[in-house]
Amino acid sequence: MEKIEKERKKIDSIDRRLAALLRKRMDCSERIGSAKKKQGIAVECLQREKEVREKWERNFSENRLPKEMAESVLESTLSFSKKLQEGKRIKGKKIGIIGFGRFGQFMAGKLKGNFEICAFDAVDRSAEAEKLGVALASFEECASSNIVIFAVPISSLRESLGKASAFFTPGSIVFDVCSVKEFPVGAMAELVPPHCECIGTHPLFGPETAKNGLQGQKIVLCPVRTKRLEKIVSFLESLGLIVIFSGAEEHDRNMARSLSLVHFLGKGLIGIGADKVEFATRTHEMFLELMNIVRKDSKELFEDMHKFNRFAPEARKKMVAELEKLDEELG
């Protein structure tokens, strides 16, 4: 029995890689379809299809797999490839993103290759959605998706969850991406119906810090209620993310002494004009990077990460006291 389980685990690992490779193949087909459309070229190309069939049969034969298997797998693959080239999206899990600001748009861009995406925002985001190739939808439609991600301001989360709870479908998974966790986790535990799963998350990156890709970036998970944690972790890791588990209180204690303080410092440096210098050391250039990141965040985000983290005020006071102490020592 132990040997069987070992081989089954190998199969599961191979299946995940196969699915990832097929997804990459579909992405290529979608890009080819877009290029064909721009150039006025027909989707179907019998000569190319013949070449693909011959290559598949040869590849399968070299790996001691029967021709019948090659034909069976290829038929389905070609069918979906043609649909994508014709501009038809493959139906699968649907993600509804509620809150289509900077981070909501960033997520949509990273996830649209794996899921059907729809998004809602109280502000008109039609230009941004068109640029990303993402469909805008009603609040109700987004909330009734298989996966619902709330990317709204922390101060708006509870109200949004309460409004959406009537539309959540049985078996759906609800996520938040707030930079604090006690408040969102408590709200989800209370407002997300028992027939749904919910997980608190905090991506420890943003559009600026992850502009070169997700590989090696970290995400914190605070599970509230879920039976599919292993699959979720596997998917996140397939994106190159490093998954960290934490309790909500532990998370907020850490963020009070890291994210909240760093942004507090960045705001202070901007306030005194520390970015307006003619020449600087490499250390100062690192602070400039911090100021550029903080400057692009909204005032609401900055205020919320302090207001909704009960450990932030104490961390700020300690930092200010230490700076005042240093100032006194310097005279």
Structural description of this entry:
- It is a single chain.
- This protein is of the alpha/beta class.
- The protein has 14 helices and eight strands.
- It has an eight-stranded mixed sheet, sandwiched between helices.
- Strand 5 (173-176), helix 8 and strand 6 (197-203) form a beta-alpha-beta unit.
Outline the secondary-structure elements:
Blueprint lengths: L1 H38 L6 H17 L4 H19 L8 E5 L3 H10 L4 E5 L5 H7 L2 E2 L2 H5 L3 E4 L3 H11 L8 E4 L5 H10 L5 E7 L14 E8 L3 H10 L3 E4 L2 H9 L2 H13 L10 H15 L2 H9 L4 H19 L1
Parallel strand pairs: 1-2, 1-4, 2-3, 4-5, 5-6, 7-8
Antiparallel strand pairs: 6-7
Instruction: Provide the residue-averaged pLDDT.
Output: 90
Question: What is the makeup of the main sheet?
Answer: 8 strands, mixed
CATH architecture of the largest domain: 3-Layer(aba) Sandwich
Please count the beta strands (DSSP E, at least 2 residues each). Answer: 8
Shape: globular
Question: For the record, what CATH class of the largest domain applies?
Answer: Alpha Beta
- As laid out across the biggest beta sheet, the strand order is 3-2-1-4-5-6-7-8
Order of helices and strands: HHHEHEHEHEHEHEEHEHHHHH
Radius of gyration, in Å, reads 24 Å
Q: β content, as a range?
A: 5-15%
- Total number of helical segments? 14
CATH fold type of the largest domain? Rossmann fold
